[in-house]
């Protein structure tokens, strides 16, 4: 039944977990890894999305406090809980607002995106452009000299308009290689959030967006994926994604406390150039 070995499932799970919440594009990395392994087609595309479940669980565990705050706050806001938590209710509302644009556009353009943008050349382009954008934002932040403690806003200070801007820019990441984390983090910084708050909100909106995408893809193409690979690679990949996502998220949070986003910008540009050379020389098929 399975055209995917256990070690391929582990590799893809690790790639998913390490890159899902970093601003480098998990989809782009997964497509590159799948092409290198000779895995392609609807089943492979569905697998790459469904193993996101492991990465979702990782963030739910690491940010359980924030998730609980949002859930209890929303229950209090609609009268299902006596205690009120305006900050929690606002967080839940902002997550919904930020999710709506992706929910609408993702449903409308899912098939076209897979048809036209799931090639290596579009991904390489997105890697390089996104890398340059990260470097530009990093320079802008340095020149602007935002004080994280005084001027920049935290999650509790967000407005629904800020959340909407983040949600709209998140839609750009439907282009594989762009990175959902990149767009939401950069959008958060641009609307006035501190880098730490932008990263945290990026993780939280990622849970909502990735969960919806995973459920949608599982319903839409899950039978095709299971017929091609079976349950074992799915379980192995999800567990590997969970473990590596925990490591990646913890590392990124610690790293960004003392450094900016420039490292990720240089990495994206370098990776884009390397993959472009491999395509031109015939090592990879674009």
TrEMBL record:
Its EC number is 3.6.1.27. It comes from the Bacteria. The keyword Cell wall biogenesis/degradation applies. The keyword Cell wall biogenesis/degradation applies. It catalyses: di-trans,octa-cis-undecaprenyl diphosphate + H2O = di-trans,octa-cis-undecaprenyl phosphate + phosphate + H(+). The chain crosses the membrane at residues 46-65, 91-109, 115-137, 158-177, 183-216, 228-253, 265-284. GO terms for cellular component: plasma membrane. InterPro entries: UppP. It is a multi-pass membrane protein. GO terms for molecular function: undecaprenyl-diphosphatase activity. It is found in: Cell membrane. Its main location: membrane. Belongs to the UppP family. Bacitracin is thought to be involved in the inhibition of peptidoglycan synthesis by sequestering undecaprenyl diphosphate, thereby reducing the pool of lipid carrier available. PANTHER family: UNDECAPRENYL-DIPHOSPHATASE. This is Undecaprenyl-diphosphatase. It comes from Mucisphaera calidilacus. The gene is uppP.
């Amino acid at each position: 039944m399975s055209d995917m070995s256990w070690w391929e499932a582990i590799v893809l799970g690790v790639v998913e977990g390490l890159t899902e919440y970093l601003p480098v594009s998990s989809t782009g990395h997964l497509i590159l890894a799948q092409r290198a392994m000779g895995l392609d087609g609807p089943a492979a595309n569905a697998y790459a999305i469904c193993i996101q479940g492991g990465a979702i669980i990782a963030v739910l565990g690491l940010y359980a406090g924030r998730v609980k705050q949002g859930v209890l706050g929303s229950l209090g806001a609609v009268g299902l809980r006596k205690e009120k938590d305006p900050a929690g209710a606002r967080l839940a509302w902002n997550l919904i607002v930020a999710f709506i644009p992706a929910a609408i556009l993702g449903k409308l353009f899912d098939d076209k995106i897979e048809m036209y943008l799931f090639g290596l050349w579009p991904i390489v382009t997105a890697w390089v452009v996104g890398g340059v954008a990260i470097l530009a934002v990093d320079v802008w932040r340095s020149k602007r000299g935002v004080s994280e403690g005084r001027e920049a806003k935290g999650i509790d200070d967000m407005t629904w308009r800020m959340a909407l801007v983040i949600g709209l820019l998140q839609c750009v990441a439907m282009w594989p290689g762009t990175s959902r984390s990149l767009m939401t983090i950069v959008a958060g910084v641009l609307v006035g959030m501190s880098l730490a708050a932008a990263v945290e909100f990026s993780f939280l909106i990622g849970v909502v967006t990735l969960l919806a995408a995973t459920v949608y893809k599982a319903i839409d193409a899950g039978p095709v994926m299971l017929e091609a690979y079976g349950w074992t690679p799915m379980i192995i990949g999800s567990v590997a994604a969970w473990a590596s996502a925990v490591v990646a998220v913890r590392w990124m949070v610690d790293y960004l406390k003392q450094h900016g986003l420039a490292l990720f910008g240089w990495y994206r540009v370098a990776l884009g150039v390397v993959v472009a050379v491999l395509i031109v020389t015939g090592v990879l098929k674009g």
